[in-house]
Amino acid sequence: MFKKSLLAITLASVATLSTAVNAAQSNGYLFASLGQSDADLSKSELDTFWGVGPGITSSLDSKDTAWKVGAGIQLNTFIGVELQYLDLGQASYKATDGAQVARTVAETSGFGLNAVGTLPLDRLSLFGKVGYHQLETDVDFSFDGFDVLSDSEKEWIVSYGVGASFAVTESFELVAEYERYNDVADDYDVDYLSAGLRYNF
């Protein structure tokens, strides 16, 4: 219920802000970022879930390369709206007895909408954002290299982020930001640290 209400408020806010475009100069932009994601997963909890006992070793790789691309519009000096496609990479868990290997891999991607507040400081700008995204997480379980089970979980999730941009020219900006995506697959959070490029037009 909360998520549906938040979506309704976000869409209503975007529609209201869009009417301001006729009264003020608006600027569009494209962006692309590359970085690292880190899934907030617990190895001990996964060990318990999979029943890992004596004689079995396990490992968790919660970090992976992540990226996103998108487009936005700066409605005025301080407020903007973005649409993005995001790939948060994958997290993998492995358990082995030395001879046989069981592996679980979760990979997340999807689309989202961000509302962005910007504080311009000459060529440097600071910003904060809140987003609402539909992310799909594909989970695959394999045993000794053979696929045993696959599942997919699609959820609407909220994200928060902060960052900074530096104007190299009037058209190009370097961007660095940190974002957190809450309750991915209705189970864990994912942190995303990235750097990228923004093209203003």
Model regions low in confidence, pLDDT < 50 over at least 5 residues: 5-11, 13-24
Kindly state the percentage of residues in helix: 10-25%
Count of domains: 1
Distance between the termini: 38 Å
The CATH topology assignment is: Porin
Main sheet: strands, sense, barrel? 8 strands, antiparallel, barrel
Structural class: mainly beta
CATH class: Mainly Beta
Helix tally? 2
What is the topology, as strand order, of the major beta sheet?
Answer: 1-3-4-5-6-7-8-9
Instruction: State mean pLDDT (0 to 100 scale).
Output: 89
Please identify, by name, the CATH architecture: Beta Barrel
What order do the SSEs take from the amino end to the carboxyl end, as H and E? HEHEEEEEEEE
The Cα radius of gyration reads: 20 Å
Strand content: over 45%
Overview of the molecule:
The model is unreliable at 5-11 and 13-24 (pLDDT under 50). The chain contains two helices and nine strands, in the order H-E-H-E-E-E-E-E-E-E-E. It is mainly beta and 201 residues long. The chain has a single domain (2-200), classed as Beta Barrel (Porin), CATH 2.40.160. 20% of the residues are buried. It has helices spanning 2-18, 43-50, and strands spanning 27-39, 57-61, 63-74, 79-96, 101-121, 124-143, 146-167, 172-184, 188-200. An eight-stranded antiparallel beta barrel has the order 1-3-4-5-6-7-8-9.
